[in-house]
Specification:
alpha+beta; four-stranded antiparallel β-sheet; 4 strands
């Protein structure tokens, strides 16, 4: 897995660096990801100046750790919901509502 390191450029200056996972192995294969990044922001603003980006092999450690924490929290939420649903099914109660 590789990462796209990117930041939006505005008339007031560049934004902060962000990171996105990609399945691309070369910069030529990143077109779909870059198009997706452009779709995520207001590109028709008169202040928008484009995207500065690089394809890199590894993201910084803090980015990886934050991603792992997010997956862990999501996994814990699903496990809790599964336990609640199992309890309700075993007791013949209505299933709990999932948090949106």
């Amino acid at each position: 897995m590789k990462w796209i390191k990117y930041r939006y450029k505005w008339s007031s200056g560049p934004g902060h660096w962000s990171w996105r996972e990609t399945s691309a192995n070369t910069e030529d294969q990143c077109e779909e990801d870059i198009s997706s990044l452009k779709a995520d922001t207001i590109t028709d603003s008169e202040h928008y100046r484009g995207i500065e980006w690089n394809l890199v092999d590894r993201a910084p450690r803090r980015i990886i750790l934050n991603r792992i924490r997010g997956y862990s929290q999501l996994s814990a939420s699903y496990a809790k919901l599964a336990m609640e649903m199992t309890d309700h099914l075993l007791l013949g109660l209505d299933a709990p509502e999932a948090d949106a």
